Amino acid sequence: MTTNNDPLATTKAELLELELELTQRLEEMDRSDSRPKMDSAVGRLTFMDEYQQHQMAEHGRRNVESQLGRVHAALARVGDGTYGKCARCGVDIPPERLEFMPEASHCVQCHSRA
User: Are 48 and 33 in contact (CB under 8 A)?
Assistant: First the structure.
């Protein structure tokens, strides 16, 4: 974390930390192969169980990739001075929402309409 009192610098540091965490999580997912294996010794139910686990892992991967994309977009908004403003209506996003979800690009009202 940063030690200065600049909230934007603190937010940027938090976003960079989150970016690193998500990138590491994706790398870990890449190392673990969750694809079901066609093995003659494996029964049909075991294969279906492996397939379901693979599908859940792929869904988790897509969620992490999506969040990482939102973090990159938030870092771009920090850079261009639009961070904290709703991308749809332009109002300030409440600090509580940004604290909970620093990559948020929309206020609660606009997000619920999407």
Answer: no
**Residue 6 — pLDDT band, cuts 50, 70, 90?**
confident
Read off the pTM.
0.81
Number of domains the chain contains: 2
Q: Is the domain of 78 the same as that of 88?
A: no
CB burial string 1-13: b at 16+ within 10 A, e below: eeeeeeeeeebbe
- Is residue 36 domain-shared with residue 62, that is, in the same domain? yes
Q: Which two tokens stand for residue 74?
A: 């938030």
Query: Are 79 and 30 part of one and the same domain?
Result: yes
* Domain encompassing residue 89: 84-114
What pLDDT was estimated at residue 47? 78
Residue 114 DSSP SS3: coil
| Tens digits of residue pLDDT in 44-99 | 678 788 888 889 999 999 999 999 999 999 999 999 999 999 999 999 999 999 99
Output DSSP code: residue 92: B
